[in-house]
Design a protein that fits this description.
The complex is a heterodimer of chains A (517) and B (344).
Chain A lengths: L1 H6 L5 H26 L3 H8 L2 H34 L5 H9 L6 H11 L5 H13 L1 H13 L2 H9 L4 H30 L2 H5 L5 H12 L3 H25 L24 H34 L6 H35 L3 H14 L3 H15 L7 H24 L4 H9 L4 H29 L3 H6 L7 H10 L3 H15 L1 H8 L8
Chain B lengths: L1 H22 L15 E5 L3 H15 L3 E5 L2 H11 L7 E3 L3 H9 L8 H5 L13 E12 L25 E3 L4 H14 L1 H14 E3 L3 H9 L5 E5 H9 L9 E3 L10 E8 L6 H12 L1 H9 L35 H10 L4
Helix pairs in contact in B: 3-4, 6-7, 6-12
Classes of the chains: A mainly alpha (517), B alpha/beta (344).
C-alpha cells in the first residue's frame, strides 16, 4: 500500500473535490431534517416525540420488520438451497423465477393482492405482500454463496459424525451468514421506506405517517421529528448488521481447487419441493400478473371510471423514461469520482466519503424528499419545484447502485494502464478518456441501468418533489389506485412491470456480485 | 474488446440522449422553473373540475394556465412557507380552513367586488379576501345489507359510542375530514371534540380517502362511513362500481354531521399576474363558470347567484346545516387536537 502510494501519481485534486461535493450533497438531507425537527425547541419537540402515536408507529414498524425479515430469510435460504444444492429438477428455470418478483414493484404487488382479497389489510396483509416482494433480496446473495461453496467442509462435518441436517446447520449455515445478513439488511431498509404497500393495506408506519404529516402541513416539525426517528432506526439497523457480521471471514486457505458440491438427492422429497417452489411462484408472480390481466379485461369491459387515454399513458411513459435517463446519467457521473477514489486511494477519507453516500441512500425516499423540499423552499428558490431537485433526490437515493458496478469495473482497469498512456504522452484527461472510460464503460452502463430502473418505479420521493404538471408511471398509478380505480391503474402497473423486467437479467448476469438495491 | 466497444457506444448514445432530453421542450426541462408567463393555479380542487375551468378560461381569454395539484392543508401550508415569493397566482381549495390559514398569514389580495357580488352573500368572508366557488355536504354512507335504517346513528356525535367500534369508516388523515372536525369544534367546543376524536381513534376504521371509505362500505367491509356527498353522486352518475350497494343519510337538524363546507378561490398578494388571476376568479364564479360545475361530473353544489345545482342532488337549502361561520373554522387547532388524539 505504502510502496504503491510512493510511486503512483498524487491523488488528483479534482477527483477529491468532486467526491467531497457528492458526499456533502448526500449528507445534507440528514442535517436539514434534524435542524427542521428541532427548530420548534426541545420541549415541544420532546412532547411530539414522546406520545402514544409514536409508540404505536414504532410497534407497527418493528413488528413488520421482525416478521417479514424472518419469513424472507427462511424462504430465501430454503429456496436458494433447493435451487443450488439439491437435485431439484429445472434448477436454472427456478433460479430465474425466484428473482422475477423484483420486477414487480411492491406497491403494484399490493394492488394485485387487494384485487384477489379485498379484505386484506393490517399487519397480516402487509407481512404477506412485503414477504413475497422482498424474499429475492435474501435468495440472491445466499444462492450466490451456496453455488460457490466448497463441499469439503461439509464432508469433514459428515466424517466427524454429524448427520446431513446437523452438518448443514454446523458447516453450511455459518458460511451463509454474511450473505444472509446483507439480504436481511436490504429487506429491513426497504420495509422502513415502504409507503405504497402500507398505505394501500392501511397499516400505518413511520413512512406513511410522515407522508400524512406532509398532507396536513407540508414541511413541518412534526413530520421532520418522525423522520428523525426513522433515520435513527436506519442507522441502528446498519450498525446491527455490521456488528452481527463480525470480523470472521470465511475463505479457503491452502492450495487446490474447491470441490464442486454434489447436489443432495431429494428422492421422495422432490414432489413436495416442486410443489413448494411452484406455490411460491404462483403467490409472488402469478397473483400480480393474473390481477393485471383481470383488470385489463375489466377495463375494456367498461368497468373503469374514467375513460383510459392511451395518449396520456404514452406521454407519462416518455416523461418517466426521460427523467430516468437524466437521473441515470447524473448518478453515474456522480458515482464515478467516489468509485475511483475508493478503488485507487483507500484512505480514511475515501472510506468516510463512501460510507456517507451509503448512509444517505439507505434512508427512505420520503426523508430525502422532505429534506429537499424544506431546503429548496427556503434556500434554493431558483430550483424549487424543478426536476433538478427531483433528479438530486434520485441520485442521493440510488448512487450505491451505480457505485457497486463502477467499482467492480475499476478492477479491470489497473492504474498501470493509465500510467502507460501518460508515459506515452497523453495528458490526464486524454488518458482518462482513452483508457479508463472504455474499460469501465460496461460497469458504468450496468450501474446506469440499475439507477434507470429504480428511478422509473420510484413513488414516494416523486410524490413530494415532482414539478408542476409532471406525472410519472408510479404517480399516475398511485393517483388511480388511491381512488380505487383499479382498472384505470392497470395500464400504468403493466408499464411499471415492463420497465422493471430487465432488472431480473441484470441481477442474474453477475451472480457473485452482491446486489446494491 | 468488442463488448467494451459496444458498451462504450451505448454509453455515449445514452449521454447524448440525456443531453437532448435536457434541452428538449416540455415540462421536464432540467433547471427550468414554472413558466412565469402562464397563470399558475395551486389547486386542491378535483383535477377534472379545475381542468374544465382552466380549459374554458384559456379558450375565452387566451391566458395560458398551468396547474399544480395538491391537497388543502398541504398546499395552504406550502403557500405560507413559500411566502412572498410563492409561484402561485391563484389558490383553489376544497374547504375553507386552508384558505383561512393563508389569509391569516396576510398573503391574500382582495377579490374584486364584482366577483364577490356574483355569489350568494353567505359565500364570501367579510374581509373579501377570498370567494366561495362551490359547496359540499357531509353525509353518512351506509350499506343497507349490513345495517337497518333504524340502527343508523341520529347524529355524527353518536359514533363515539363504543357500540360503533369497528363499524364506521372515515378518511381521518384528509383535509375534508379535518374540515368536518372543525365544524364539530365550532359547535361542540374543545372538550367534546377531544372526546369524540378519542372515540374515532378507538372505534373508526381509517381509510386513505373518501372514495376508499365509500368503496369499503359498498363492499360490506364496514357498515357505515362519513364522507362528502359528491363522491356518491359522481359514482352513481358514472359506473356505480363503488356505490351500487349503498345509500346516503343526511343528518340534518343542525347536527355537526350536516356541515356544509365551502370551497374557496383566492388571488395571492404576491402574484405578478393579479389582473389575470382576478379574471380567473370572476370566470369561475360567473354563470358560465358555475354552470361548468353544475353540469359536470363534479356533483358539488353551485354557489353562483341564479345558477341551479345538479338536479340529482338533495337541494342545498333543505340540508339544515349547522350554524357555523365557515370563515372562522380553525384548521391548526383541529390538527393539534387530532395529533393529541393520536390520529395524526
Amino acid at each position: 500500500m505504502t510502496s504503491r502510494r510512493g510511486r503512483s501519481n498524487p491523488t488528483p485534486v479534482t477527483v477529491v473535490t468532486a467526491s467531497l461535493v457528492v458526499a456533502a450533497v448526500c449528507v445534507l438531507p440528514l442535517l436539514v431534517v434534524a435542524v427542521k425537527a428541532f427548530d420548534i425547541g426541545w420541549g415541544p419537540a420532546w412532547d411530539l416525540l414522546w406520545r402514544p402515536r409514536v409508540g404505536e408507529l414504532l410497534r407497527n414498524t418493528a413488528s413488520l420488520v421482525v416478521l417479514t425479515v424472518s419469513l424472507t430469510t427462511g424462504l430465501g435460504i430454503a429456496a436458494a438451497w433447493l435451487v443450488e444444492r439439491t437435485s431439484l429438477p429445472g434448477a436454472k428455470f427456478w433460479r430465474v423465477l425466484m428473482v422475477c418478483p423484483l420486477a414487480v414493484p411492491a406497491f403494484v404487488n399490493s394492488y394485485a393482492w387487494v384485487t384477489v382479497r379485498p379484505d386484506l389489510q393490517g399487519l397480516g396483509g402487509a407481512v404477506l405482500v412485503t414477504t413475497l416482494s422482498y424474499f429475492p433480496f435474501v435468495f440472491l446473495p445466499v444462492a450466490a454463496v451456496l453455488r460457490g461453496l466448497d463441499q469439503s467442509l461439509e464432508d469433514s462435518a459428515r466424517s466427524l459424525g454429524l448427520g446431513p441436517w446437523r452438518s448443514f446447520f454446523r458447516a453450511v449455515l455459518p458460511q451463509l451468514r454474511p450473505a444472509a445478513l446483507g439480504g436481511m439488511l436490504l429487506v429491513s431498509l426497504h420495509l422502513l421506506s415502504e409507503f405504497g404497500v402500507l398505505a394501500m393495506l392501511r397499516f400505518p408506519t413511520f413512512t406513511t405517517a410522515i407522508l400524512e404529516q406532509f398532507q396536513v402541513a407540508f414541511s413541518n416539525s412534526a413530520g421532520s421529528l418522525l423522520a428523525v426517528v426513522l433515520i435513527a432506526l436506519c442507522l441502528g439497523l446498519l450498525t446491527a448488521e455490521l456488528l452481527l457480521r463480525g470480523t470472521i471471514r470465511h475463505a479457503r486457505l491452502g492450495r487446490g481447487a474447491a470441490r464442486r458440491a454434489l447436489p443432495a438427492r431429494l428422492g421422495l422429497w422432490t414432489a413436495p419441493a416442486l410443489i413448494g417452489m411452484g406455490a411460491l411462484t404462483v403467490l409472488a408472480l402469478g397473483v400480480p400478473l393474473g390481477s393485471l390481466v383481470y383488470w385489463f379485461r375489466a377495463g375494456s369491459g367498461g368497468l373503469t371510471e374514467s375513460a383510459f387515454d392511451p395518449a396520456e399513458l404514452v406521454t407519462t411513459l416518455w416523461g418517466t423514461l426521460r427523467l430516468a435517463l437524466i437521473a441515470g446519467v447524473v448518478t453515474v457521473v456522480a458515482a464515478f469520482p467516489v468509485a475511483w477514489l475508493i478503488a485507487r486511494r483507500r484512505t480514511w477519507l475515501s472510506v468516510l466519503v463512501e460510507r456517507a453516500t451509503y448512509v444517505a441512500s439507505s434512508l427512505p425516499g420520503v426523508v430525502i424528499a422532505l429534506a429537499l423540499v424544506t431546503l429548496s423552499v427556503r434556500y434554493a428558490r431558483p430550483v424549487y419545484q424543478t426536476s433538478v431537485v427531483l433528479v438530486a433526490a434520485y441520485a442521493i437515493l440510488f448512487i450505491p447502485r451505480a457505485m457497486v458496478s463502477i467499482r467492480a469495473a475499476m478492477a479491470h482497469a489497473p492504474e498501470e494502464l493509465t500510467e502507460a498512456a501518460r508515459a506515452l504522452g497523453d495528458g490526464p484527461f486524454r488518458a482518462f478518456v482513452r483508457v479508463l472510460v472504455p474499460l469501465t464503460a460496461p460497469g458504468a452502463l450496468a450501474g446506469f441501468a440499475m439507477v434507470f430502473i429504480a428511478t422509473s418505479t420510484e413513488l414516494t420521493a416523486t410524490l413530494l418533489l415532482a414539478p408542476t404538471g409532471t406525472q410519472t408511471l408510479a404517480t399516475a398509478f398511485w393517483s388511480a389506485s388511491e381512488s380505487i380505480d383499479y382498472a384505470g391503474a392497470a395500464p400504468y402497473a403493466a408499464a411499471l412491470v415492463l420497465v422493471s423486467a430487465p432488472l431480473t437479467y441484470l441481477l442474474l448476469r453477475r451472480p457473485d456480485e452482491e446486489p446494491a438495491l | 474488446m468488442i463488448r467494451r466497444r459496444t458498451a462504450l457506444l451505448a454509453l455515449a448514445t445514452t449521454a447524448t440522449l440525456a443531453l437532448t432530453a435536457c434541452g428538449g421542450g416540455g415540462s421536464l426541462e432540467a433547471g427550468k422553473s414554472l413558466d412565469p408567463d402562464k397563470l399558475t393555479i395551486y389547486s386542491a380542487q378535483h383535477e377534472n373540475l379545475t381542468q374544465a375551468w382552466a380549459k374554458k378560461f384559456q379558450e375565452d381569454t387566451g391566458v395560458k394556465v398551468q396547474i399544480r395539484y395538491g391537497s388543502d392543508s398541504s398546499m395552504g401550508a406550502q403557500i405560507v412557507q413559500e411566502g412572498a415569493k410563492s409561484p402561485a397566482d391563484v389558490f383553489l381549495t376544497e374547504n375553507s380552513p386552508a384558505m383561512t390559514t393563508v389569509q391569516n398569514a396576510g398573503l391574500l389580495a382582495k377579490v374584486d367586488e364584482a366577483t364577490i357580488a356574483q355569489v350568494g352573500k353567505d359565500y364570501a368572508p367579510s374581509t373579501h379576501e377570498w370567494v366561495g366557488i362551490a359547496a359540499r355536504s357531509t353525509v353518512l354512507v351506509y350499506n343497507p345489507s349490513k345495517i337497518t335504517e333504524a340502527e343508523l346513528p341520529k347524529s355524527i356525535m353518536d359514533l363515539q359510542d363504543p357500540k360503533w367500534k369497528g363499524k364506521w369508516g372515515a378518511a381521518a388523515g384528509g383535509a375534508d375530514f379535518q374540515a368536518i372536525v372543525s365544524a364539530i369544534l365550532e359547535t361542540q367546543g374543545e372538550a367534546k371534540t377531544a372526546t369524540w376524536l378519542k372515540g374515532l381513534k378507538d372505534g373508526a376504521q381509517i381509510y386513505q380517502n373518501n372514495i376508499a371509505v365509500m368503496k369499503a362500505v359498498n363492499a360490506g367491509q364496514v357498515p357505515v362511513g362519513i364522507m362528502y356527498h359528491y363522491y356518491w353522486y359522481r359514482d352513481q352518475a358514472l359506473s356505480k362500481v363503488g356505490s351500487k350497494n349503498t345509500k346516503l343519510l343526511y343528518f340534518r337538524h343542525q347536527d355537526p354531521g350536516a356541515f356544509v363546507s365551502i370551497s374557496g378561490g383566492a388571488v395571492l398578494k404576491s402574484s405578478k399576474q393579479g389582473a389575470n388571476a382576478q379574471k380567473f376568479l370572476a370566470y369561475v364564479t360567473s354563470k358560465a363558470g358555475q354552470n361548468v360545475l353544475a353540469t359536470s361530473d363534479a356533483k358539488e353544489y353551485a354557489v353562483g347567484n341564479g345558477v341551479p345545482s345538479d338536479k340529482a342532488l338533495e337541494p342545498l337549502d333543505t340540508l339544515e346545516a349547522p350554524d357555523v361561520d365557515p370563515f372562522k373554522l380553525n384548521g391548526p387547532k383541529v390538527i393539534e387536537l387530532m395529533t393529541a388524539a393520536g390520529i395524526l
